[in-house]
Specification:
Its EC number is 2.4.1.-. It is a multi-pass membrane protein. It comes from Geodia barretti. The chain is an all-alpha fold. It is built from 24 helices and no strands. Helix 18 runs antiparallel to helix 19. The radius of gyration is 22 Å and the shape is globular.
Amino acid sequence: MFLRAVAAFRERITLRVLLLVSLVFRLALLLYGEWQDSRFAVKFTDIDYHVFSDASRHVIHGESPFLRATYRYTPLLAFMLVPNHLLFFSFGKVLFILCDLLVGLIINEILRLKGVKRHSRLLSVSVWLLNPLTATVSARGNAESFLAVLVLLSLLCLLRGRVTLSAVTYGAAVHVKIFPAIYSLPILLYLQDRDNPGAGSSCHKRLFKPSSSVVSLLLKRTRGFPNVQQLRYVVVSSAVFFSLTGIFYLLYGSEFVHEAYLYHVTRRDIKHNFSPYFYLLYLIQGTSLSLPVGLLAFLPQVGLLLAAAISLHRDIVFCCFVQTFVFVTFNKVCTSQYFLWYLCLLPLLLPFSNMGLRQWTAITTLWFTGQGVWLFLAYCLEFKGYNTLHSYCGWLDFSSSSSMSLLSPESSPLTPSHLSHPHKTHPHLSHPHSSVEMTANVKNTT
């Protein structure tokens, strides 16, 4: 009887119902945030939201948004939040919540394009829409959902073969936040293989021999560069990026370039930070080692990103997920909203995962537990003044749980049928390597 009731309930769930429930959930969080902000020392609203809003006030008065200390984003965000002062203060939060819902719609469309059945699509979409982390981040006023819309739109258009429109949204995404630039190499490799499916197939089978180097492999994969599609993508995306950047440069000068882009190269954040480098950077802050160590921290990222791009670009969605996961995990600065950069891509992989409910539950529990332990230690340090910096095990717990979720043998986005019948694989899921093989390959190349 119970199982029949569950089955009947499942049949009644539609995307519209899921979106409505998600909207109510986020609006409830927004109202709760207003209550918490007025009563507790620990505020619900993200400090960045106040920075965005203050910058938009400067824009209204014809001034530079960078007059607001710590505003280090594209001026586009300040212009988007002008209604905060013309309508109501939470306008930006509502806007980011709507972007959250739009992300769910795009995820559903990409999965439909890949031939995923309705029930599996809704389950995957719910991982984003009903996720308390993603809902809280947008309700607190963080703008990551806007970036997620641009990134996912770019992938959707690319999978549909609409290269020009994909390049437009990709160029805008890189302007909003520079990190999507890491997708440029896998996208170009994907466009090369799409135009010439047989290109590089012989070297692909022996791609990651221990004696191979990243440079030699990259040279093999880039033979025949560039084709018409690649040229179009580079020209259009560059035109969009430099047009937006050029407009704001004319308005605000070199200060815009430094604050929005260059600052992040040398940025340090030694407090509420999930980065594996945070404690090292804390110990050497103010010394002559601070700058060179900070720059050297990019090397592991670069090596892993190149290896992932070369080996996984045929499944462009999975490749972007792995690249983003690696970039966030090994970045010098990593706060909670950074996780949304790859969490928006995770639902696109779930229908093709071999992992069962038990494995997903274990990994999810480890991931949230590690984050909870670390946030508790950060609270004790920053709000209570307790010396918790020696508790480096909090980061080790979180870092190991994050790495396990990528290294798990069952976490391959390819189902057994794809492996046993490669000629029947969906064209966008044609990569023959599993996550474990990729991980071993990355070790060989780095």
